[in-house]
Amino acid sequence: MNLFKKELKFERLSFFYWTAGLSLTVFLSMMAYPIMKDTGQDFSVFLEAMPKALLVLFGMNGLSISNALEFHGIIYFYVVFGGILYAVTLGNRLAAKEELLKTGEFLLVKPLKRSAILLYKALAGIFLLSFLVLLLHGTTLLSFTMYAKEEISHLVLLKESFTLWLLMLLYFALGFFFASSLKEEKKSTGISMGITLGTFTLGLFYDLWDSPALLRPWTPFRYFPVKDLLEETSLPLLYILFLFLLLGGLLLASFHFFQKRDLRM
Question: What are the TM regions of this chain, as residue ranges (predicted)?
Answer without folding.
Answer: 15-33, 75-96, 117-142, 162-179, 191-209, 237-258
